[in-house]
Design brief:
Helix content is about 30%, strand content about 15%. The chain has about 725 residues and is an alpha/beta fold. It has three domains: about 300 residues, Aldolase class I (TIM Barrel); about 200 residues, Rossmann fold; about 110 residues, FAD/NAD(P)-binding domain (3-Layer(bba) Sandwich), CATH 3.50.50. An eight-stranded parallel β-barrel has the order 3-4-5-8-9-10-11-12, surrounded by seven helices. A five-stranded parallel sheet has the order 16-15-14-17-28, with helices on one face. Strands 19-26-20-21-22 form a five-stranded parallel sheet. Helix 19 packs parallel to helix 21. The protein is globular. The two termini are about 40 Å apart.
Length: about 725
C-alpha cells in the first residue's frame, strides 16, 4: 500500500486530471516583480518536481487599480504572456499543473487608484477607494476575464479567481463594505452578482477545458460578514456559473482574529469545509494551518475535503509530496507558521523566503554543489545555526563533527519550545534530529564542551555557541528573587505577582508563559475559538461571537516593562506582533513603556516614571533584557591563532534569532563556499514599508513545542528523542 493513499490519488477538475490531491496555495513571493523570469520559473518548477498536484501562483493583477501595490505583476501585454510562458513550460516539463491566481485587491490596494463597492477606507490601507459606477464595474469584470484568457494563452492550465480574504469580490458580498443601493448592493442576490458574473465570464473566456478554481470565503471574521446560508447560496451559484472546484479562504486581512500564525491550531477551520462539501457537487479544497502529510491524509479520510491546500509548507520544502510518497515524511522540512521570512517579508516589500529553507525563492542563486575537496569541519554548538551549518556541509560531502556541551540538540530553541501556543517548534527540532541522524558524514559529540585543543586538527572550524542573557545592571538587594528568562522557561517557581523587565520578543513570550494555565489553546480548537471569540458562521454572521472573546483568566498578575517610551511590542513581527499584544491584553498583562529601573529589592522592583521612584510589589523579577554573544571559545581560538568562523548568536545576538542564524548557516558563505549568485532586485515598496522594522525570529516570534509530543500532534512522526544524550565517537 502506498504512503498516504488518498493524498496521492489522482483527481479530475473539469477536463484536467491531477496526479494527486495536493494544492500548492497562492503566495505572493515578489519574484515576478524582480523581472527575473528564469528565477520565477525555477521556483515553481522545483515545486512541480517535488510533486505538487496543482500549483496556484501568487495573485496577478487584472489591471493597474486592482494590483495589491503599484507595479504589482499581471498579464498586461504580449511580453507578459511570453514571460509567464517560461513559467508554465518549466512546470509542465516537470509533470506538474499550474493555475494563475487573478487577484483584484479592491480597497486593499495600496494605491490612490484603488476602487471598491463603496467609498469605505480599509483599516490596512491609507487610501480611500473610489466607489465604482456601472461602467466601472463592467470594466473590472472585462479586465478579469481578459486576464483569464491571457493566462490560457500563456500556457496555464486554468486560473484561480480570488473571492475571499476581504479582496475585491469579497467586498461586494457583505454589508460590512457594500453599502450600495443599486443592482450591485442591498439583497444577497445583488451583492453576489459580481463574483457570479466574474466566474461566468471567466469560464467563457477560457473555454470548457480549463480549470477554474474559485476561492470562497467560508468565514469572514469581520462584523456584518456573510451568514452560512449566504455562503452556501453563493457556492451553488458559483458552481452553476462554471467553477471546477471551490478553494476555501478563511478570514479577512483586517480581521482581529489570527488565522495563519503558529498559535492557530492545525486545521482549525476544516469543519467549515466539511460542512460545505455536501452542499455542492464539485470538489472542495480545505486550507489553513495544514503542514504535514499525515494531517492532510486524515482530513481526506474523514471526508472533510476532496483536496488539501498547503501554501507555506511548499516554501519550507519544495519536495513535500515527493518525500511523502517515498516514505521520507520525517525529512520534510516543517513549516512552523512563524511568518518571519514569508508574510513579514511580503508585507514589508521584501522578497519572500522561509526560515527553515533559505533556498526558497533563491533557487538559482543559492546552490549546494558537491565540494571539490572534502574537508574536515568542526561545528561547535547544536542550535539552529550550528545544526544547519553541519547539515549543509554534510550534504556537500564534507566530514563534519558537531559538538555541543548539552545532552540534546536545539540550543536556545529548547527554551522557546516551552512557550504555550508555539508547539510547532517540536516539529522543527524533530526535523533537525532526523537529518542529523541520517547523515553518514556527520559525527555528533553531545555532552562535550569543545575546547580549543579539540579543534586544532580540523580544516574548518565554525563557532555557533549562541548567546547568553544580558545583565541590565539594575542594583539588586541580597535575597531579591531575580530570575532570567531561561530560569522561567525551564520551570523555576515565580510566585503570583511577576515583573518582566524587557518587552522585546522574549519578554512577550515569558509573559505569555506566566499568564497561561491549563491546555494550550493551540492544542484545543474549542478553547482557541473561545479565546478569540470565533463562532460558527451558522450561529453568527461572519463567525464572530456577539459578546466577544472569553479568554481563560490569567494564572498570574504580570507587569511587562521596558525603558523605551513607546508601545511595548511595537517592533515584533509585522504580521504577528498584533497577535502577541492582543493576547497579553486579553490576559490583563499591564504593559508599561518609558520606565527607569532604580533597584530591585526583596519587596519588588522600584520604578521611576517621572519625578520619583515607586515600588512595584512583586514576588519575582524576570530579566528579559536581551542577549550577548557567547564568545568564550572564539576568544580562546583567537588567542591561539586558530582560524574560525562565527555564525548565529555567537556572531550577532539579536533576541533568539533563528531566522538569521539558519540563513547565515545554510549558505555556508563564510566557511564552506556554497555558491550564491547574483543579487535580488529590490521590490517596489509601499511608503509605509520603507521604514518598517521587522524583528528577527525571537522567542516571541518562534513557534515552539512542549517537551513531549502532545496528543494533538500524534500524527507527527515519532521524534528520535531530539538526539538527547546521543553520542557517537
Amino acid at each position: 500500500m502506498p504512503h498516504f493513499p488518498l493524498l496521492l490519488s489522482p483527481i479530475t477538475l473539469g477536463a484536467v486530471t491531477l496526479r494527486n490531491r495536493s494544492l500548492m496555495g497562492s503566495m505572493h513571493t515578489g519574484l515576478e516583480e524582480t523581472g527575473d523570469w528564469g528565477r520565477v520559473a525555477a521556483f515553481y518548477a522545483a515545486r512541480a518536481r517535488g510533486g505538487a498536484g496543482l500549483i496556484v501562483t501568487g495573485g496577478m493583477a487584472p489591471n493597474r487599480e486592482g494590483g495589491v501595490f503599484p507595479g504589482a505583476a499581471g498579464l498586461f501585454s504580449d511580453r507578459d504572456i511570453a514571460n509567464h510562458r517560461r513559467v508554465t513550460d518549466a512546470v509542465h516539463a516537470e509533470g506538474g499543473h499550474i493555475a494563475m491566481q487573478i487577484l483584484h485587491a479592491g480597497r486593499y490596494a495600496y494605491s490612490r487608484d484603488c476602487v471598491g463597492p463603496s467609498a469605505m477606507k480599509s483599516p490596512i490601507s491609507p487610501f480611500p477607494p473610489r466607489a465604482l459606477d456601472e461602467d466601472g464595474i463592467e470594466r473590472q469584470i472585462a479586465d478579469i476575464a481578459t486576464a483569464a484568457a491571457r493566462a490560457i494563452e500563456a500556457g496555464y492550465d486554468g486560473v484561480e479567481v480570488m473571492g475571499s480574504e476581504g479582496y475585491f469580490l469579497n467586498q461586494f458580498l457583505v454589508t460590512h463594505t457594500n453599502r450600495r443601493t443599486d443592482a450591485w448592493g442591498g439583497s444577497q442576490a445583488n451583492r453576489m452578482r459580481l463574483p457570479v458574473e466574474v466566474v461566468r465570464r471567466v469560464r467563457v473566456a477560457m473555454g470548457p477545458a480549463a480549470v477554474l478554481v474559485y476561492r470562497i470565503s467560508l468565514i469572514d471574521l469581520v462584523p456584518d460578514g456573510s451568514t452560512w446560508d449566504e455562503v452556501v447560496v453563493l457556492a451553488r451559484a458559483i458552481e452553476a456559473a462554471g467553477a471546477s472546484c471551490l478553494n476555501t479562504g478563511i478570514g479577512w486581512h483586517e480581521s482581529r482574529v489570527p488565522t495563519i500564525a503558529t498559535s492557530v491550531p492545525r486545521a482549525a477551520f476544516v469543519h467549515l469545509t466539511a460542512r460545505l462539501r455536501p452542499e455542492v457537487s464539485i470538489p472542495v479544497i480545505t486550507s489553513n494551518r495544514i503542514n504535514r502529510p499525515e494531517v492532510a491524509e486524515r482530513l481526506l479520510s474523514e471526508g472533510a475535503a476532496d483536496m488539501v491546500s498547503m501554501a507555506r509548507p511548499w516554501l519550507a520544502d519544495a519536495e513535500f509530496i515527493a518525500k511523502a510518497a517515498a516514505g521520507r515524511a520525517p525529512e520534510i522540512a516543517p513549516c512552523i507558521a512563524c511568518n518571519q521570512a514569508c508574510l513579514d517579508h511580503t508585507f514589508s516589500g521584501k522578497l519572500t523566503s522561509c526560515l527553515v529553507n533559505p533556498r526558497a525563492c533563491h533557487e538559482t542563486e543559492l546552490l549546494y554543489r558537491p565540494a571539490a575537496a572534502v574537508k574536515r569541519v568542526a561545528v561547535v554548538g547544536a542550535g539552529p545555526a550550528g545544526m544547519m551549518a553541519a547539515i549543509v556541509a554534510g550534504q556537500r560531502g564534507h566530514s563534519v563533527t558537531l559538538f555541543d556541551r548539552a545532552a540534546e540538540i536545539g540550543g536556545q530553541l529548547n527554551l522557546a519550545k516551552q512557550v504555550p501556543g508555539k508547539e510547532e517548534f517540536h516539529g522543527l527540532i524533530d526535523w533537525f534530529a532526523t537529518l542529523l541522524l541520517r547523515a553518514p558524514q556527520i559525527t555528533l559529540r553531545l555532552g562535550h564542551a569543545a575546547k580549543a585543543e579539540d579543534l586544532a586538527g580540523f580544516d574548518v572550524v565554525v563557532v555557533a555557541t549562541g548567546v547568553t542573557p544580558r545583565d541590565p545592571g539594575i542594583p539588586t538587594e541580597a535575597g531579591a528573587n531575580v530570575l532570567s528568562y531561561a530560569d522561567v522557561l525551564k520551570g523555576a517557581p515565580v510566585g503570583r505577582r511577576v515583573a518582566v523587565v524587557g518587552a522585546g520578543g522574549i519578554g512577550f513570550d515569558v509573559a505569555a508563559t506566566l499568564v497561561h494555565a491549563g491546555v494550550s489553546p493551540t492544542l484545543d480548537a474549542g478553547v482557541w475559538r473561545a479565546e478569540w471569540g470565533v463562532a460558527a458562521p451558522w450561529d453568527a454572521p461572519g463567525g464572530l461571537v456577539p459578546d466577544g472573546p472569553k479568554p481563560h483568566p490569567p494564572a498570574r498578575e504580570v507587569h511587562l516593562l521596558q525603558r523605551k517610551a513607546e508601545q511595548p511590542g511595537r517592533h515584533l513581527g509585522k504580521t504577528t506582533g498584533w497577535i502577541h499584544r492582543a493576547h497579553l491584553t486579553m490576559k490583563r498583562v499591564r504593559m508599561l513603556g518609558g520606565v527607569r529601573y532604580d533597584r530591585i529589592t526583596t519587596e519588588g522592583i522600584w520604578l521611576n516614571r517621572g519625578a520619583r521612584s515607586e515600588l512595584l510589589a512583586v514576588d519575582a523579577v524576570v530579566l528579559c533584557a536581551g542577549q550577548e554573544p557567547e564568545r568564550t571559545l572564539s576568544t580562546e581560538l583567537e588567542r591561539r591563532g586558530i582560524p574560525h568562523h562565527r555564525i548565529g548568536g555567537a556572531d550577532v545576538a539579536a533576541e533568539l534569532d533563528a531566522k538569521r542564524a539558519i540563513d547565515q548557516a545554510a549558505p555556508g558563505r563564510k566557511a564552506l563556499g556554497a555558491a550564491r549568485h547574483g543579487h535580488p532586485r529590490p521590490l517596489r515598496q509601499p511608503p509605509e514599508a520603507a521604514g518598517a522594522v521587522i524583528t528577527p525570529l525571537s522567542s516571541a516570534a518562534c513557534s515552539s513545542a512542549v517537551s513531549t509530543a502532545p496528543s494533538a500532534f500524534a500524527s507527527m512522526p515519532l521524534k528520535p528523542s531530539s538526539l538527547r544524550s546521543v553520542q557517537t565517537a
